[in-house]
Fold this protein.
Amino acid sequence: MDTKIKLFTDSAADLPQIYRERYDIDVVPLSVIFGDTEYKDGVTLSRAEFWVKLQESKELPSTNQANPNDFVEAFKPYVEQGYTILYIGLSVKLSGTLQSAVLAKDLLGTDQIHVFDSKSASIGETLLLITAGEMIQAGHTIDEILQQLEQQRAESGAYFTIDSLTHLVKGGRLTKTQGFVGSVLNVKPILQVTSEGTIEVAEKVRSAKKALQTMVSKAKEAHIDFSQKRVAIVHTWGAETVPELIELVQDELAPANIVEGLIGPTVGTHAGPGGIALFF
């Protein structure tokens, strides 16, 4: 009998509930800290609760990576039942969470756990999870799935714009210099998730409308056949340009499918309100 494959991810994936249920994906939570209180993303703090709390908080929250024991506890029951585990996780360049999964694999002493670096975050992880979920249901082997994920990752990209770079700088995802450049002259920064899984300022524009147009133009420069590709549009609390970006993407890229979602606590801590992103 073929080995059963169990999908895992982390809470940074902002995985919509529909896909979580459709592909039976378990989510290992990172932590979000407000003052002296630590919450488990999606477990003791919902997306809606997080955004309300962020508005009310005088200090910016911080995040804590998932630790190896979190993964051991999540993986162990499935290892014991003979499953092959595929964990698709947050870029190792953005968090130590992926490394915790690798350590958990070592602690469990099995080669039946496969740790795949999305080299992305948020819905960029989800796009890979959907592909893996579809392939598992179609009966593909773990090697076939990993090969497809590597190809999809190589052809992927992400651009986003946010109201303020303060959260990214405080969280160490951008340098103070990058943050300063983005905040002076009232420019609207376009950021990208690079092929290495880091976040860089790609361009600076003067208006929200120009920011959306630039994001779509950057996607077109990738020379991808979007008619065969699923793309995703996600946003943080307070983003008002979602319908506008969806319309632009439909008109300019005409993708096979658009996945939509609200960014949750883990990524929202670093992005802040008023952000919108295009992943492909």
Summary: The chain has two domains: 5-30+65-154, 158-279. The longest strand covers residues 199-205.
